[in-house]
Every structure is written in C-alpha cells, then in structure tokens.
C-alpha cells in the first residue's frame, strides 16, 4: 500500500503531452480532474476549479432578425480549456455535469415595440430565453440569461440572438459577454 | 491512528444505507460532504460537487392581477439529491448558494408586466430576498424577467421559492425554457 504525503495527497495520472486533447479523471474521493496538453504543462487540475470561461463580443455586429442565429462572442477574457469556440460560437461541454451559464447582449435605441432576444440552445432544445421589448426610443436594450444546466461530455450548444429589426449590437466587454462554468457532477 | 491510503484519502463515515433524509459531514479540511440512503449507494459526496438542482413550471398557471402568488415548480429538470419540494428548492444544508430563475408570461396588451420575487426561509416563514420586473411594449409575444444572486442560508430546513405578480390574469409561459428555478451550493459561507 502506498502512503500519502503532503506533496501528492491525491495521486493523479501523469501530466499529458503537449498535443494531447483534454482528458478527465475521477479520483477516489469523487472529484473530477482534467488535463490538456499545453495547458498548465499538461498537469491535472480539479474540473470545478479550472473549467471556467468568459468571452465577449468585440467586433461590430448587427443583430439578425432570423430565428436560430448564433451569437459569436469573438474575444476571450479567459478560456484555458476550450469551453467556447470563438470562431463559430460553439459552447463545448467538456465533461459530464452541471454548467452555470450567463450571457448578455445589448443594442442601442430602437423604435418602441421592437424587441431583442437571447436564448441558450443545446441539441435543438431551447433552455433559457430572455426577451426585451422597447417601450420608448432612446433606450438601450439589454437581455440576459442565467441558467444551470446538465449535459454529457461532448455535448455542444450555442447562444442564439435575434432582434425584430436589424440593429447594431453595442459590443464590448461591458455589455456583450458570456460565461461558462462547470460546477459539479450532480 | 488511521493511516491514509490512496483509495481512501479522506476518511469518511460509512455509507448511509438506512433511514431517510440527508446527512452531512465536515472533514478535517473543512469540506462539507453529504450522503443519503438510496442516492449513489449512500456514498459520501462533496456538497459543492453534487448539491445542484433545476426545476421548472410545466402546468398551466395564470397571473393574479396585482396580487403576489406562488409559482410552484412542478417539474424536475434534474435533481439527483431530492432538493425539489414541489414548490421550490430545499437547500438541504446551511451555507452559501447561487440562486437563479425567471418567470415569463404571454402578452395580450401593451404595458403589461411581470414581477417575480424570490423568497427564502423555512416553509411558512419565508422572506423576500430578490425581485425583478419586465414590461411589454407590444400587444403580443412573451415577456420574461429573471436574475441570479447569491444567498447565505443560515437556518436549517430553509428553501427558496418564487412568487410573482402582474398587471392582469395573463397566462404564464411555462416549460423548461420560460419559468424555472435553480440552486447551486457554493460553500460554507
């Protein structure tokens, strides 16, 4: 029997090589660990501790009117393990479990009665949706979603947005952002 | 003295294989663990890892003009630890929690609103802790109002529930998409 020591209290697999894809490991206490080549030198980290990402929209963006339009947050604040793909707006659920999702977009003044909408969509199912109708010109519109959802490893999703009339998004770290966080096995 | 080993690095109580209700244990590092007969074989799990729950309203329900009414969350999205009580979500242990939810209704005229309020406490003694609101500027469509916030539950047996009021008797928009409530245990606080 191997005895524990203070420098290696929870024995995890060996670090991964530089090109290795993300891998997960559940330790004897039930904690899920992840490792990925090129991230933290391939060392294993608790998933709850590191699977967190924040992205935002930086480039100019016209909110579409068509349903099913994917919002692409094109800039990463932090996303070491690839929870989000900025190239196409895909959310990547890397291990099985619960995920906390927050997302927001804003656009400038529109005509009264027009709307702005944001939705989390995973595997064809819409989960959380917020819609804001303008009740006067000169009003900035913001829609936000906050949800807790459970998905299997490998599942993907998107944040979808639409407006009743084409409108320029405000863009920027302050108003157009999304966060994704793994919170546990459930 | 109990020697630690790789298969049992944190000595925990024996699995819970009888009785009902959740049991908790704080290990020497301060982590809270929970176990319940019939869940995961009664094995002890870290509370931060497993105490998560999402429920939603599925049955039809109508607002009650200007009067706050309960919005019972009658359907479980996922609730492996039996946190749902059919109305809201039990915290099961004391500590810090992240709560999120929203309610929505079907608009029938301009200038209608929905105002969800979140209440926490022991059943029958809940106090409001958060509120949000949204208005309609159109004569149709669906309007939602929701938010996320932290709460420290320091009274055992507490839960969170949602009440709502509006400007008329419009129908709630129900289902997994529209009217829901979720809770995550964050730590001891």
Give a quick summary of the entry:
The complex is a heterodimer of chains A (186) and B (189). With 186 residues, chain A is an all-beta fold. Chain A is built from 1 helix and 15 strands; from the N terminus they run E-E-E-H-E-E-E-E-E-E-E-E-E-E-E-E.
The helix/strand class of chain A is mainly beta
Give the second-level CATH assignment, the architecture of the largest domain in chain B: Sandwich
Radius of gyration of chain A: 19 Å
CATH architecture of the largest domain in chain A: Sandwich
Query: What's the average pLDDT of chain B?
Result: 93
- Provide the low-confidence segments of chain B as ranges: none
Strand order of the largest sheet of chain A: 6-4-15-9-12
User: Mean of the pLDDT scores of chain A?
Assistant: 92
Number of domains of chain A: 2
The percent of residues in helical segments of chain A reads under 10%
* Helix percentage range of chain B: under 10%
How much of the sequence lies in strands of chain B comes to 35-45%
Tally of distinct domains of chain B: 2
Secondary-structure class of chain B: mainly beta
Distance between the termini of chain A: 31 Å
What is the CATH domain class of the largest domain in chain A? Mainly Beta
What's the β-strand tally of chain A? Answer: 15
